[in-house]
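WARN no homologs supplied; continuing
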Amino acid sequence: MKNPLRDEASAFRVVVLTLGGAVLVALGAWINTWLGVVVFLVLVGVALFAIRGGMRQRPTQAHVVHDDGPTRKILVVANETVAGGELHELLGRKAKGVSEDVLVVCPALNSKLNTWTSDEDGARAAAQGRLDSSLTRLREAGIAARGEIGDGDPLQALEDALRVFPADEVVVSTHPPGRSNWLEQGVVEQARLRFDVPVTHVVVESLSDST
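OK structure emitted
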């Protein structure tokens, strides 16, 4: 779910829509009390539908334009498993014999309360710490890797990254089934449907917290 107050422009739109809705309710109530109630209920329903993403267009696939050249571009999305040995081993195998360019995206997962209040500093700091540790290990292994903090929604983080990083392959790293929120949410399956690049799923067994 997106935070409608994540920036000033979004907050301004919320204020304008709220005032417009209040005017419609007042006008309906002036004409007829029950009409005002109906208008209010309809507006509440529309607002809830929009907040939950119902009005957002859902493309079947996001097309990715690939650059021609010998470099293999690999886009990785991982949170707590970003430092996992299985992930690093997989990237090492994929980098053999090619000139690789690896972009690691670590979503800034946050609580719903902090998301709604736009308090993302703690989540971003924690994600940055995990990302820095992972990048250090990858570079020590000879893998050309760089990283960035992404949207708390892993699919949105992938979509944002693919706009500027035309990957040849996407790697989604999670904990095992039963411990992975991303697997429960169907992130891997949705990524395969949404993006027209190969998506590899790697399971990291060595960490105890859920992702």
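The longest helix spans residues 8-31.
OK
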